[in-house]
């Protein structure tokens, strides 16, 4: 059954860009500066989802809230292509690599970097600046946040409205 | 694509008697024979860094211990590290894009922008190691001098004169003096290690404490004695680029262009460019005692036209020959014609063949049918391939000779 869309886009500068070809369902709130690419799926199945400022959600990303509590995602997170997020909370400045999976109930704090195809187990709590990488899911602690993607976001803000319809 | 993915189905006989697929053979035009990997000389052309493509001559590479001073890889995940600039100070540090390891983690101070060679900490034992290697060099010269003294003939008093009174025209005196000196000077001494009973005890928690962060095994393999916090960047090893020579005439068979950036060959004598390629064009179904046919495709990859006579070998008498031999002329492949879609009639007119076993003929390709009558079930079809190609000889004035190569066509499914 198709769930009713209830999308709130908070005003701000720069404005959030949510394209029409993304798959949104349920109660979702986007703060200013967020960018949602086409074919990204954000499903507030059981509880609502709230995005902080300047989140980048790329193609074929699945972000789903399966619990009844709201899923609050902090600012400046980068969800790379094809990652699957079922986390219960996400902090700020995190990078979710290509096709990485965050299982149900996992808690992601700040400055974490989850490498391509890496897995965060159910109900696991990642401490700040954890790095997961490699096919063995190696875990280590970085002493720096992941590099800023502000310039990439600025470029996308110019390009995306040229080729996509934006939800107002 | 079958020639790429199943290149080992059909084997060609090398001049040394080994069998190999066509793609792995060379053809020496000076000896006019095929060469395989076991009958060529492989030599090191130059050393180069696979990351920055900087090439180094052999002596320099040895001095640098076969490592590139400018490029490093991550000790944690073996990815090549990238240089990052700090926004505040303008200094640079190395960082890994995959696991976010950086030289700051290792406690290495940032370097100025102009640094190309990333500094390496010195081996704490280097002084001792140099001492020992110096001592062994000294021993070597002494031993050599003593051996020379024993083996060379002693010529004293040329006609009553002392040899030392002659002017040292040929440097003999100098040599003798050097040898004398080497023997007479006392040998250098290196203090040897002394066994001690005073060994510090292991900390109590060594077997109990589990590190919060488990290092992957390959990291432990690379730097086994360090903890994660003290992992250091590893200099990228240089790669050797090889050139291949014919073992008999020592002419180059394979040599890359001088510049490491270029990917084209300066000299390439692949057998594929001289010998026609044989492929099975259809799956084979053989019935013992009945006449069956095998469909093959012949390809000419050389730049010249080629005359071919294909004969089945019935040495092992696994089958009875019905098609005695096939005589074909194959035109060369003109890449421009393929691109422009030139008429194929141009090619078919150029080829002349009397055999009725030709299925099709297209550009540099010809499909043939070999009829035979199997006596037993066999998995490998032996063929004799005679070909005449102007490319088989390095001499310009002589006309092309017939060359023969034996081929085994694999009939397995």
Automatic annotation (TrEMBL), chain A:
InterPro entries noted in UniProt: DCTN6, Trimer_LpxA-like_sf
Signal peptide: none
GO BP field: mitotic spindle organization
GO molecular function terms noted in the UniProt entry: dynein complex binding
Gene3D superfamilies: Hexapeptide repeat proteins
Keyword Kinase annotated: no
Location within or outside the cell: Cytoplasm, Cytoskeleton
GO annotation, cellular component aspect: dynactin complex
Predominant localisation class: cytoplasm
Alphabetically ordered keywords of this record: Cytoplasm, Cytoskeleton
Task performed by this protein: Part of the dynactin complex that activates the molecular motor dynein for ultra-processive transport along microtubules.
The family this protein is said to belong to: Belongs to the dynactin subunits 5/6 family. Dynactin subunit 6 subfamily.
Name of this protein: Dynactin subunit 6
Automatic annotation (TrEMBL), chain B:
Pfam families xref list: Dynactin_p62
GO cellular component terms given for this protein: cell cortex; centrosome; dynactin complex; myofibril; stress fiber
Keywords: Acetylation, Coiled coil, Cytoplasm, Cytoskeleton, Isopeptide bond, Phosphoprotein, Ubl conjugation
Domain of life: Eukaryota
Main location: cytoplasm
Location in or out of the cell: Cytoplasm, Cell cortex; Cytoplasm, Cytoskeleton, Microtubule organizing center, Centrosome; Cytoplasm, Cytoskeleton, Stress fiber; Cytoplasm, Myofibril
PANTHER family named among the record's database cross-references: DYNACTIN P62 SUBUNIT, DYNACTIN SUBUNIT 4
Family the UniProt entry places it in: Belongs to the dynactin subunit 4 family.
Subunit structure: Subunit of dynactin, a multiprotein complex part of a tripartite complex with dynein and a adapter, such as BICDL1, BICD2 or HOOK3. The dynactin complex is built around ACTR1A/ACTB filament and consists of an actin-related filament composed of a shoulder domain, a pointed end and a barbed end. Its length is defined by its flexible shoulder domain. The soulder is composed of 2 DCTN1 subunits, 4 DCTN2 and 2 DCTN3. The 4 DCNT2 (via N-terminus) bind the ACTR1A filament and act as molecular rulers to determine the length. The pointed end is important for binding dynein-dynactin cargo adapters.
Protein name, entry field: Dynactin subunit 4
Record organism: Mesorhabditis belari
